[in-house]
Specification:
The complex is a heterodimer.
Chain A: E1 3-7, E2 10-12, E3 18-25, E4 34-39, E5 45-51, E6 58-60, E7 68-73, E8 78-83, E9 92-98, E10 102-103, E11 107-111
Parallel strand pairs in A: 2-11
Antiparallel strand pairs in A: 1-3, 3-8, 4-5, 4-9, 5-6, 7-8, 9-10, 9-11
Chain B: E1 4-7, E2 10-13, E3 19-25, E4 38-43, E5 50-54, E6 58-59, E7 67-72, E8 75-80, E9 89-95, E10 101-102, E11 106-110
Parallel strand pairs in B: 2-11
Antiparallel strand pairs in B: 1-3, 3-8, 4-5, 4-9, 5-6, 7-8, 9-10, 9-11
Classes of the chains: A mainly beta, B mainly beta.
């Protein structure tokens, strides 16, 4: 059974940083594209970033503007999202997803002073 | 930027009645490989999104056959033949031709 467990969310001040993690199990992690998608409270889904199986290819939504970095450690079966220069508008639940098919439960990031 | 526009944004349906959601893309979703990368998801209250339909019309594993997808190019439709109480939630279309873009979502409630 595929399991995706996000962690690392929390309260951070504007301009601060966080690193989200997504621990994967139940499948051959290195064989799949992995994604981050976010959802502000009461709002819709927004694609954030993706990375291919070996980590050599990444892509980001325009609003990321170099502030977020996706990476993965296939030895640890873990996906990451390094978030820098955080803004209030980054406040959201962040989901990781395998191939945009299976999704984790999300981790909440709150950017506020 | 590619925009995905869903209509309606909400609908209220009597159990056993049909429902239909439209999704229009500002650019064609037909890729050079001949495939059209349009997906439908349902996010039930308090849950993560779940995939219903992939590549326009293919039901994902375990999805009831009352759900069907159709369309081509820029115009797509999700249909539910006979709505059940468990179908409540927000439905999203998503394209994966030009990176990834979700529609605004359509909230389905039961009358």
């Amino acid at each position: 059974e595929v399991q995706l467990v996000e962690s690392g969310g929390g309260l951070v001040q504007p301009g601060g940083s966080l690193r989200l993690s997504c621990a994967a199990s139940g499948f051959t992690f290195s064989s799949y594209w992995m994604y981050w998608v976010r959802q502000a409270a009461g709002k819709g889904l927004v694609w954030v970033s993706r990375v291919n199986g070996d980590g050599s290819s990444t892509a980001y939504a325009d609003f990321v503007k170099g502030r977020l970095t996706i990476s993965r450690d296939n030895a640890k079966n873990t996906l990451y999202l390094q978030m820098n220069s955080l803004r209030a508008e980054d406040t959201a639940i962040y989901y990781c997803a395998k191939d945009l098919i299976e999704w984790g439960q999300g981790t909440l990031v709150t950017v506020s002073s | 930027d590619l925009v995905m526009t869903q209509t309606p944004l909400s609908l209220s349906v009597t159990p056993g009645q049909p429902a239909s959601i439209s999704c229009k893309s500002s650019q064609s979703l037909l890729r050079s490989d001949g495939e059209t990368y349009l997906y439908w998801y349902l996010q039930k209250p308090g849950q993560s999104p779940q995939l219903l339909i992939y590549e326009v019309s293919n039901r994902f594993s375990g999805v009831p056959d009352r759900f069907s997808g159709s369309g081509s190019g820029t115009d797509f439709t999700l249909k539910i033949d006979r709505v059940e109480a468990e179908d409540v939630g927000v439905y999203y279309c998503m394209q994966s031709v030009h990176l990834h873009t979700f529609g605004q979502g359509t909230r389905l409630e039961i009358k």
